[in-house]
Amino acid sequence: MHNSSNFSRRDFLKAMGAGALGAAAAGWFASGLGHGLSLPSVQAATTTFGLAATDGYADVPGRPGNPLYIFGFIPVSPTASVASLIATYKGHAQTSAPTLDFKQDEDINITLTNLGLVQRPDLTDSHTIHWHGFDIPSPLNDGVPEVSVAVPIGKQLTYFYRPHREGTYMWHCHFEDVEHVQMGMQGMVFVRPLQDGTTRVFDGKTFTRFAYNDGDGFTGYHRQFAILLDEFWSTFHDHDRDIQETIMTDYDPEWFLMNGRCYPQTTLPNDADAVAAGRPDLRIGTINTTLGTTDFSLPNSSLIQLNPGERALLRLSNLGYQQDSLQLPGIPMHVIGQDASLLRNGSSDTSYWTNTLYIGPGESRDVLFDAPAFDANRPSGTDGRGAYNVYFLKNRDWRKLSNNGASGPGGMMTEVRVYQAPLPAQVAVNQTFI
Length: 434
Ligand SMILES: [Cu+2]
Description:
This protein is mainly beta. It has a domain at 9-197: Immunoglobulin-like, CATH 2.60.40.420. It contains four helices and 30 strands. The protein has helices at 9-15, 82-89, 177-182, 234-241; strands spanning 25-26, 46-58, 68-76, 100-103, 107-116, 130-132, 156-161, 167-172, 186-192, 200-202, 205-207, 209-210, 220-221, 223-232, 255-258, 285-288, 293-296, 304-306, 311-318, 324-327, 333-338, 341-342, 344-345, 348-349, 352-354, 357-359, 364-370, 380-383, 386-395, 413-419. Strands 14, 15, 19, 21, 22, 25 and 27 form a seven-stranded mixed β-sheet that branches. Strand 16 (285-288) and strand 17 form a beta hairpin. The radius of gyration is 21 Å and the shape is globular. Mean pLDDT is 86; it is low at 1-44. The structure holds copper (II) ion. The site of copper (II) ion has 7 residues, from loops.
């Protein structure tokens, strides 16, 4: 902790207006529904919600019976006591973290509670929330512990935000950040533009939702999907479990992730247990070997479900330590945003069409693409929504399409499914229909 002697944490909370907590609507979580929170249908002017930080385990394909030790953030009630949160959630981490979806100029209160670690009671690390790429007026809310404060075990801190710039970002813990990010303390955050809710016609399509305040519907979309790219390196996770040091320059990850999962986990629904989906070999509900419980430790789907002709917005961020290149064979990609900036300014349009998208660590991209017509002659599949055509959004590096040498395709890949029968309207980002 870096508390100064004349400004206590209590003063800080008072200054942040923590007394208003609980008076406003709950946050709009894209996922984590299995933890008991529901999706409110209305965005309030002030959004208040809670996150808890702890450890847990995640099953990864190609390593049966030996889940990876992880750290993570889970969505919790912002008004629950520390004691009740510890009793309920300690040791039940998830990764990736809940996707945070806000509107421009909205006030946001996030209460972070540090529950401590079950597997490593000796490790007394604090945690923080860092919104990567944002202009933050006060370092107190930026989560860099060396220049502000962090949350010790058993304590709570309320962060305050009012994001003024729309776009796609990412967030993570900044305490021992190379370690905590690799261990799983990372997620997507994006800011929807004030233009949302207005109607624009562009390219002959009618839009009410947009990636940016573009003025004319240039960034309009019908469905949006936020996908966080990352890698898992077993050495780091095993060493953290076993109280050993790791030499980070030996970084050699075996799992390449979208929203914390490897293909084909990536195509399973949000929060679903793969056992229930008929694929017990792909458990995303993990047996917690320490607590003897089942955790939904990989809750966030990357499945992209579309109706023919719909325009999709892909919000991509990379919090791994390697550059990635993504391809979507059969569908051209229009890159309209980079690092939360619209690639157009007046008559200067630097957006581009590509079949290979490059994205480095700490970077984000906004990509639009149109779902093709349904074609009964294309290779297809069938799920609970009926027949679909499948397109693969995948890393172009074949070494990142494997799950630690297990047979079959794996790694950083997901499916774009274009359905014959109409899907319901999308209410939440990354919503899955089963
Ligand atoms: Cu942390």
